[in-house]
Amino acid sequence: MRGWQVGVGLALVLGSPIVEMRSVSAQESIWKRFTSKSHGFSIVMPGTPTERKQSGLTQFELIRDAESVRYAVGVLNLPAAPGEDKKLQNEVYEGIRRGAARGQAELLSFRTIKLGEFPGREMNFKLPDNMVAKWRVYLVDRRAYFINVTTTQENQQRGLATSIDVFLNSFRLISPPSKQPN
Predict the structure, then answer these.
(1) Residue 34 and residue 39: Cα distance in Å, rounded?
(2) Which range of residues forms the domain containing residue 73?
(3) Hey, what long-range contacts does 122-126 have (CB within 8 A, 24 or more apart)?
(4) What's the CATH number where 10 sits?
(5) At 104, phi and psi to the nearest 5?
(6) Cβ pair 97, 144 in contact under 8 A
(7) DSSP code for 73
(8) Residues 12-29 pLDDT 10s
(9) Are 96 and 105 in contact (CB under 8 A)?
(10) What is the average pLDDT across 31-50?
(11) Number of domains observed in the structure of the chain
């Protein structure tokens, strides 16, 4: 197994803690665009995330206990750019699936996506305790971006579906990849 596969799997497991969630409440959220210039992205979030670094992964996370939801964006520098090499791309995605399986997550579905010209994959996971996670992973030159939401199955099907889509669809690169730091 390649070292970066271990890093991606570890990032997935470390970056997706199972958090205690409470039931959804009718609470007004304030959505704002969050920008990380040093990591070359922006995204809309219902508040200001906290940043943490662990095992090569930089993660921006926002937990809303009252709504039983966790929003996160992770950034991991890869030793090589997968580019158009489908085999390398699939190795990254398989590393994520294996990392999720170690955390007792089951991959329910996936589809191929793109962010402009960059390849990606959307994955839906079933987690323990009636939790679910929806991930989008984009491979941008030598970086992997992990955009994900974890919530209860009930929330995903009902109350938070629109908020989840707003979050996932709002991810943008803010500088050309050739100018992003490696």
Answers:
(1) 12
(2) 3-19+27-179
(3) 122/168, 123/93, 123/96, 123/97, 125/100, 126/153
(4) 3.40.1000.10
(5) 70, 25
(6) no
(7) E
(8) 444 444 334 333 333 445
(9) no
(10) 95
(11) 1
